[in-house]
Amino acid sequence: MTFMGVDTRCLGLFLLCTIIGHSLEIKVNPPQDFEIMDPGLLGYLYLQWKPPVLMENFKECTLEYELKYRNVDSDNWKTINTRNLIYKDGFDLNKGIEGKIRTHLSEQCTNGSEVQSSWMEASYGISDAGSLETKIQDMKCIYYNWQYLVCSWKPGKVAHSDTNYTMFFWYEGLDHALQCSNYLRDNEKKVGCKLSNLESSEYKDFFICVNGSSNMEPIRSSYTVFQLQNIVKPLPPEFLHISVENPTEMRMKWSIPEGPIPPRCYTYQLVVREDGISRESATDKNDMKLKKRANDSEELCFFVRSKVNIYCADDGIWSEWSKEECWEGFEGPDSKIIFLVPICLFFVFLLLLLCLIMEKEEPEPPLSFHMDLYKEPYSYEETLC
Which CATH number do you get for residue 277? Predict the structure, then answer.
């Protein structure tokens, strides 16, 4: 009986401690002063906050923050876990931005349990000055041969004739946003920009803003963000050559386009035409062997274009097509005769030319004058005439 009394008291004490433990739930406050700040870099924003107010027994704990953000029209949140008090990323400023953040306590402070605060939220959006139809249309940018960037646009649908557009750009490495210094014009109107000498600008976000001014109304700004290596348009291949090494196989070769793009970064698309029937092929090398459709093919032609491959970029733009290169016929008896005819004519012409030269070089006999004064008499009158 004595032991039963002791067990009952122990069980009661355990239940009481469990109830007290659950009633004293561990809580942590959310971060303070969460905001999304625009430093004027055309879409590169700072998400920053301050540490939460902590209770005395949590001051030695390591804090982590769970940050989520997105453009307002997106269904997907981007999630970052960090111990810092600031995070930087690029956004499309044509749309609003929203973010939220909460505090996480490390497990050593919570006996292995997961403890997190409530969410703190913030949002950011640019001014909507000017109607939507005053901003530029059909913005297109191409990084030609990994050497220079050309961006072009059309005026807004309702933009007045006095509207003057201005382009700014920024990428990580520049101290501040820069204005285009080489505009493309159509009837004195700015319709594009060419940028050269973009040092160390690949594999990072490239931000562009085109705004405008008019005496009639405000002009809505347009924002674009991309990475240069994903919009490269290379030069087309040159020096194409096609040969038939045996009756069933043909080989095609071409030169790697000139410029700063490494050879390993190219992929190629070929169109092969055999007796009027076309087929496509692809390769990452600058030559290719293909089986012929027929052993007696009399016409084989191909042309090729290039693009930056998936090992150097996420996307790219195909080059223009090269000139077509053809191999016609095969070396049968008839083709040999046709081949020998011009060679024979050439040697005949060369022989005739040589004969003419030798004939001109033969010395002419000397002229001799002999007068026989007694052979035919002349009268005095005849000599005076």
Answer: 2.60.40.10
**Which of 52-61, 74-83, 243-252, 277-286 is predicted with the least confidence, judged by mean pLDDT?**
52-61
Give the Cα separation of 288 and 46 in Å (integer).
Answer: 50
Final residue of a structural domain among 311, 328, 345:
328
Please tell me whether residues 102 and 142 are part of one structural domain. Answer: no
Is residue 73 one of the residues assigned to a domain? yes
Of 148-152, 338-342, 351-355, 369-373, which range is least confident?
Answer: 369-373
Residues 171 and 248 in one domain: no
* CA nearest neighbour of 145 among 36, 56, 44, 266: 266
Residue 21 pLDDT: 45
Q: Same domain for 45 and 68?
A: yes
Same domain? For 57 and 139 the reply is no
Residue 240 CA to residue 6 CA, distance in Å, equals 98
pTM value > 0.85: no
* Sheet containing 287-291: order of strands: 238-246, 249-255, 287-291
Can you tell me the distance from the alpha carbon of 325 to that of 250, in angstroms, rounded to the nearest whole number? 13
Residue ending a domain, choose from 182, 216, 232: 232
Q: How confident is the model at residue 57 (pLDDT cuts 50, 70, 90)?
A: low
- Pair 65, 102 in one domain: yes
Give the mean model confidence (pLDDT) for residues 364-371.
42
Q: What is the pLDDT of residues 93-131, one digit of tens each?
A: 999 999 999 999 877 777 777 889 999 999 999 988 889
pLDDT digits (tens, 9 = 90+) for 158-186: 999 999 999 999 999 999 999 999 999 99
Domain housing 210:
132-232
